[in-house]
Specification:
single chain, 16% strand
Length: 277
């Protein structure tokens, strides 16, 4: 696709599922206000580190034949040396290091038969009607006529007890895939024509969804998800046609700074300056 000048002026060549699933205000700040290097250097917490390292370990075993033991060692090291925001507690890091081996084992045991020897990180590019740039993504695992996205569910800290300590609750496995994940999978499905699968992996168990056991992975529902994503892309495109200046666009969109997890703590003050009217 030929990239229109207004996208180039915004520093954009494509959309991704992660872009489109962000609230519009966060997207404006992350993709129009911050440049690529600053965006890449934003520190993420231990939850993201757990997900990334568990995911990488499962891929290493299934796709590249690494032993489970070595994959877990590498994953643990990834969490140990993760540069987390200063607000993150080391007790979370220690808990995640404790549960990570069980997560990896559960994921490998669940997926080895169907996705052992799979290709990992296949790049896809999907044009959408009326959208002037493609949707780009990378599929976790591709095997023969199927593909898989892996999602992790971390343990969560409970409320403070009377003695001042805090326990942990299990990472909750969903009864059906989450909508944001279905939207991502719908893009990959449309781009490849392969049968979609989503796995959720936690320390105590893992579950695999496919069209055989999940109505939300049917063709009709995935088409619904695609149209939702196209709408999100169109709204962003319409904003870019008005202006590629983040200060101008900030005057059109509510930032919702009180939301509990939309905004990164290390950049929230800077975002507040952008939204001053």
């Amino acid at each position: 696709m030929t990239i229109p000048q207004y996208y180039k002026d915004a520093g954009l060549t494509h959309f991704s599922a992660s872009q489109l699933n962000k609230p519009v205000a966060n997207w404006i700040f992350d993709y129009l206000y911050l440049d690529y290097s600053r965006r890449r250097n934003i520190k993420v917490g231990y939850n993201a580190a757990l997900g990334t390292n568990a995911h990488n370990a499962i891929q290493a075993v299934l796709c590249h034949g690494q032993s489970v033991e070595d994959a877990i060692k590498d994953a643990v090291m990834g969490i140990e040396f993760h540069d987390s925001p200063t607000s993150e507690l080391t007790e979370k890091r220690d808990k995640f290091i404790e549960i990570l081996p069980d997560m990896v084992n559960n994921g490998v045991n669940l997926l080895a038969e169907q996705f052992g020897g799979a290709e990992d990180e296949r790049r896809i590019e999907l044009p959408m009607e009326g959208i002037d740039v493609p949707i780009v993504g990378f599929i976790d695992l591709v095997a023969s006529d199927s593909f898989l996205e892996i999602k992790t569910k971390a343990a969560r800290q409970g409320a403070v007890k009377k003695d001042g300590t805090r326990g942990w609750t299990k990472g909750s496995l969903p009864a059906k895939p989450e909508f944001y994940h279905l939207s991502q999978v719908a893009i990959y499905w449309k781009a490849t024509g392969l049968t979609p699968h989503i796995a959720y992996v936690a320390a105590h168990d893992a579950v695999l969804f496919s069209p055989d056991n999940c109505d939300e992975l049917s063709q009709d529902y995935l088409e619904y998800c695609l149209e939702d994503m196209r709408g999100k892309a169109m709204r962003r495109q319409n904003l870019l046609k008005l202006s590629t200046d983040p200060k101008v666009l900030a005057g059109l969109v509510d930032p919702d700074f009180n939301h509990p997890f939309y905004w990164d703590e290390e950049t929230k003050d800077e975002a507040r300056e952008l939204w001053k009217i």
